[in-house]
Write a structure and sequence with these properties.
With 327 residues, the chain is α/β, with parallel strands linked by helices. 33% of the residues lie in helices and 27% in strands. The chain has 2 domains: 209 residues, Rossmann fold, CATH 3.40.50; 82 residues, Alpha-Beta Plaits, CATH 3.30.70. The protein has 11 helices and 13 strands. Bound molecules: adenosine-5'-triphosphate. InterPro entries: AAA+_ATPase (IPR003593), ABC_transporter-like_ATP-bd (IPR003439), ABC_transporter-like_CS (IPR017871), ABC_transporter_ATP-binding (IPR050763), P-loop_NTPase (IPR027417).
Length: 327
């Protein structure tokens, strides 16, 4: 049988829960010595996909191969070669953290030295504490240690740095990079665009159970074939209107968008969901655009209180691909 260079290969995966079609023909590839980040809104089908790769769920359609093997039928052969970090930890609750790790390590032929791994992830301070008494961040670090202690060829990490303090996050990112440099294929799900930007060699954006985009972070942000190359962020306040009659930023966004369209500029204008007074113009950012935007503000009776131009970010791309409405 020809061997595939892909550590993980998912083709046309379909998975249903009763009437819910959680995954609807998803394709994904992860290579050795690379971090593949799976991004997507809540309920997009990321965890279901990863669980099919881990052999925890059987696909209803399509094929999943991990190291060329079927994760369900070949589960026994894959177990010593694959590391898994689950979202809920999946760890026994009444056993001390240090013992859990020792037990997991004993199942592998060539585990990492426990002291070294414990130091890396700061596990020493809670090694004697029962899993159920660990803080969320401590449990998270223990779950990561358990996933990588066996020097896996493939590691599936579900939101590895969710809820971690900055120090722990740096330690986790360093460990992930080191595993990658040692040749491990790492598949991680994350909601943190910064994590994907920092770590990922390859990004797959999932929405509605399908992969809607895939590529390097730079390639996606560079936006081959996209019309938007940058973002102009501005905050505005009405010059005269009393505070209680201020129109919402969404109204300003609509008006600015229409004004730019009349001027022949290809742009998308959004109200920044994080601030009531902030707008984002996604367009080719150049002096002409800045002139048009500030002239519009002047004509509309708005004072521009801040204006910053920047490149598109992975978050911009993510929101363009998956929209802004809540799932
Ligand atoms: N065990 C289950 N039984 C029924 N429906 C489920 C089950 N697990 C997931 N689903 C549904 O399948 C869809 C995909 O869920 P999944 O957990 O794979 O999404 P996700 O992308 O990992 O989301 P999140 O970012 O919130 O973790 C959702 O509509 C979810 O409600």
């Amino acid at each position: 049988m020809p061997t595939s260079p892909d550590a993980v290969r998912v083709d046309g995966l379909v998975k249903r829960y009763g009437r819910v079609e959680a995954v609807r023909g998803l394709d994904l590839v992860a290579r050795p010595g690379a971090v593949t980040a799976v991004l997507g809104p809540n309920g997009a089908g990321k965890t279901t996909t990863v669980e099919c790769c881990e052999g925890l769920r059987s696909p209803d359609g399509g094929t999943v191969r991990v190291l060329g093997l079927d994760p369900v039928a070949d589960a026994r052969a894959l177990r010593p070669r694959v590391g898994v970090m689950l979202q809920d930890g999946g760890l026994p609750s009444t056993v001390p953290a240090g013992e859990v790790l020792r037990h997991v390590a004993s199942m592998y032929a060539r585990p990492r030295p426990l002291d070294e791994l414990g130091d890396r992830l700061g596990l020493g301070s809670f090694a004697r504490t029962q899993v159920r008494r660990l803080s969320g961040g401590q449990r998270q670090r223990l779950a990561l240690a358990a996933a990588v202690v066996g020097r896996p060829e493939v590691a599936f990490l579900d939101e590895p740095s969710a809820g971690l303090d900055p120090q722990s996050r740096i330690a986790v990112w360093d460990l992930v990079r080191e595993l990658r440099d040692d040749g491990t294929a790492i598949v991680l799900t994350t909601h943190q665009m910064a994590e994907a930007e920092q770590l990922a060699d390859h990004v797959v954006v999932v929405d509605g159970g399908r992969a809607v985009a895939a590529g390097t972070p730079g390639g996606l942000v560079g936006g081959a074939g996209q019309t938007t190359a940058g973002t102009l962020r501005l905050t505005v306040v009405p010059v005269r209107a009393p505070a209680d009659t201020r129109p919402a930023a969404a109204t300003w966004a609509g008006a600015l968008g229409a004004s730019l369209e009349r001027a022949g500029v290809v742009a998308r204008v959004d109200a920044d969901p994080r601030r009531a007074d902030a707008l984002e113009v996604h367009a080719q950012v150049d002096p002409g655009l800045v002139r048009l935007v500030t002239a519009w503000a002047d004509d509309t009776g708005l004072l521009v209180t801040s204006l910053a131009a920047g490149p598109r970010t992975l978050e911009d791309v993510f929101l363009e691909l998956t929209g802004r409405s809540l799932r």
